[in-house]
Amino acid sequence: MKTLLQTFSALMISAGLMTACSPSNTQQNATSEPSTPTIVEVKKVAITAIVEHPALNAVHQGVVDELAEQGFKDGEQVKINFQSAQGNSATAAQIAKQFVGDNSDVIVAIGTPSAQAVVAATNTIPVVFSAITDPVAAKLVPSWEPSGTNVTGLSDMLPLEPQIELMKKVVPNFKSVGYVYSPGEVNSTVVLEELQQKLGAENIKVEAVPAQRTTDIPQAAKSLKGKADLIYTSLDNNVVSAYESLFQAAKEIQIPLIASDTASVPRGAVAALGVDYYTLGRETGKMVIQILNGEQPGNIKPQKVQKLDLVLSAENAQATGLALTDALLAEAKEQAEKATSEAVAQ
Predict the structure, then answer these.
(1) How far apart, in whole angstroms, are the C-alpha atoms of residue 52 and residue 110?
(2) Based on the domain organization, do 54 and 181 belong to the same domain?
(3) What are 306-341's pLDDT values in tens digits?
(4) CA gap 90, 42 in Å, rounded
């Protein structure tokens, strides 16, 4: 009897062990362990512009589109925070401090005043500037070589010689150039100094009229009546923001506008030889991606956009008492037709 009981107990123990070690039970135990969720790190990209106008808006959009195309979509891999300073330098400083306080992974600063505010606010967070005429004169970087700091970016600096050649084609034998500008913008004063130097060498006078606020621009332009054969506009953010009112003044005094910003042609300029600001934004976005992928901004050389586009408007020329030659129109026929139709639509 004892032997039978011992045998039966041994069989039961053996069966229990087999059940405990069965594959199904092992799988059940394995699956009962909680799984570790995959954590995706969302990078914070802050973008600020000194003001909103077509050129700077194009830069902003170009940055966002380049990031998305390369796998950094807003709301997924990155969180993009855009803020405009609305043309106010004090607001630009406040935005810069906020972005620094948010511990942004990269700050993109569009326009010289915004870039200066951001660079003044941090020496650790990577800063990528864009649409800056002269980042060295603006004291954003020490030179055009890799800065070794937290700052790099792209410039929209234009060689003035082609601009002067365009002036000669639009208004042959001109003797004076009007220049409406904001004295507080380094990008504008740098262009003014270079204009005075290069045009002065050809005995062409530069009539410079400062305008502190956008509301001052129409009157500043009207003061050039009888003093200038044409008005040249750089990417002065106040001036570009008020380009429609500048055009109205130009029509009243019958002086054509020549711009360095192609987006100003549909808004009233007769001609522009300049960079494509959307392309500038895409190139800026590529720099941001380099930094998000681990590159140090101080190792990235500041760059200038090399390609220039010629855009003309026969409609705007006529409105300011000018006729463009067939030879000039032939240089940018497609752009001329597009710009003219846009100007008429407005």
Answers:
(1) 10
(2) no
(3) 888 999 999 999 999 999 999 999 888 445 444 443
(4) 30
Lowest mean pLDDT among 35-44, 187-196, 203-212: 35-44
Domain that holds residue 168: 160-274+313-345
Q: Print the SS3 string covering 197-239.
A: HHHHCCCCEEEEEECCCHHHHHHHHHCCCCCCCEEEECCCHHH
Calpha distance 16→37 (Å, rounded): 35
Mean pLDDT of the chain: 88
Q: Residue 43 and residue 172: Cα distance in Å, rounded?
A: 53
Same domain, 252 and 199: yes
Sign of the C-alpha dihedral, residues 305, 126, 86, 120?
negative
DSSP class of residue 74?
B
Q: What percent of the chain has pLDDT over 90?
A: 78
Domain match, 202 and 287 both: no
Helix-strand-coil split of the chain, %, nearest 5: 50, 15, 35
Question: For residues 147 and 123, what is the distance between their CA atoms, to the nearest angstrom?
Answer: 12
The contacts of residue 62 (CB under 8 Å, 6+ apart) are 277, 278, 279, 280, 281, 282, 283, 284, 285
> For residue range 277-301, what is the model confidence (pLDDT) as tens digits?
999 999 999 999 999 999 999 999 9
Of 229, 255, 232, 256, nearest to 174 by C-alpha is: 229
Comparing 131 with 17, the larger pLDDT belongs to 131
Query: Please, what's the largest Cα pairwise distance for the chain?
Result: 131
